[in-house]
Amino acid sequence: MGAVITIFWLAGESSADLHCALIMKALAKDGKKYHHIGIGGPQMRAFGLKALFPFERFAVMGFVEVIKHLKFFWMVERRIKHQFEANKPDLVILADYPGLNLRIAHLADEFRIPVLYYIAPQFWAWKHERVYKLKASVKHTACILPFEEDMLSIHNVNCSYVGHPIAEEIEHKLDRDGFARFFHLNPQKKWLGFFPGSRNSEVKRMLPIFLNAARKWDEKEYEILISKSRGINHQFFMDLVSNTGMRNLNIIDGYNYDMMKHCEVLVSTSGTVTLESSYIGTPTVICYKANLLSYLIAKKLIRVRNIGLPNLILDNDVLPELVQHDLTPESINNKVTEMMPGSPRREVVLLELGKLRAILSNKKPSVEVPKIIEQLLITYG
Question: Which CATH class, in words, describes the domain spanning 4-163+363-380?
Fold first, then answer.
């Protein structure tokens, strides 16, 4: 290992980009020189990642969607193999994204490059055989969900629970009045928030349903806030919302955590956002709808009862989940009503979300993951 430590990163999603940037920020303070190369988004690039591909090309989800992009992923794999041959890194760090990352883990292992898998594949939900791939090709797996460490240890996978990165990433910039002024909202009204997703395909599927639910709420009493993820094509998004005729509709670009905090109830596509909103403590309706073929395949394979991460961590049906055919504007609004201020259901939910916050706050990835990186570099350097 030379004076400059080369780390190859692969983070294919926005949440993983943010989580890895947290680790890169911590590494930048340890006094060593790092060269970061691989696949990641704007957050990682801000900390010096030399990106090999446009990040948006990796925003693919679902069986059918992945099949459509197989040619691209084969090309990515060939390029990474060439990278390992030409400039062998000291360490490979793979974040989530198991369809590609487990193949890259095997490739790195063939080149005798140590692999740290940060954010374990959701082997507990489906494709349990991924446990054996982790054991075969990965030197250490850093788990961000507390129950994963025990489940992997049973199979003798080197692993540790490092805490969840959202506990470090979430920060609030504006109080409710400041948020209202910034986005021209009426602070006297109740606010309902909608998070349709971070991929164009998700937004196309979910946003029309969310808008149909939102239009049922009285304009005189409610502000409707729709989050626009920065990874979403702006014109595409605005075309979907342009003809609603809703005078109380507000597009919130950025400021996710403030929006989560200040809304009475949230409606969100299933994903990391639902864990963030739950950590903040705002009741959320968790929604999921996929391409029909992808859904039918997943239904046969998925082994867990819940799709929402908050419910999985708490092992309890705390937040309502609306999946596929059960996801309608009417069902959304029924669940929102059940969790509005003043309802008995809301008090139960808030108590459980407090427990979730405590569970996820007991360790910090920015402290734990650099320790693992240092140990791997010493052991295999």
Answer: alpha beta
Distance CA 66, CA 46 (A): 28
**Contact present, 285 and 319 (Cβ < 8 Å):** yes
Contact 259, 228 (CB under 8 A): no
Q: List the single range of 42-51, 294-303, 371-380 with lowest mean pLDDT.
A: 294-303
The architecture of the domain spanning 176-360 is 3-Layer(aba) Sandwich (3.40)
Same fold, 4-163+363-380 and 176-360: yes
Q: pLDDT by residue (tens digit) across 190-230?
A: 999 999 998 888 899 999 999 999 999 999 999 999 999 88
Q: Return the domain boundaries, the chain.
A: 4-163+363-380, 176-360
- Distance from C-alpha of 67 to C-alpha of 99, rounded to nearest angstrom: 11
Whole-number Å distance between alpha carbons of 115 and 135: 11
Closest CA to 373 of 44, 22, 86: 22
Q: What is the edge-to-edge ordering of all strands in the sheet holding 265-269?
A: 249-253, 222-228, 190-195, 265-269, 284-288, 321-323
- Cα(130)–Cα(39) distance, rounded to whole angstroms? 22
Give the full edge-to-edge strand order of the sheet including 140-143: 50-51, 33-39, 4-11, 91-95, 115-118, 140-143, 159-161
Q: Decide: 79 and 52 in contact? Cβ < 8 Å.
A: yes
Phi, psi at residue 102, to the nearest 5°?
Answer: -70, -30
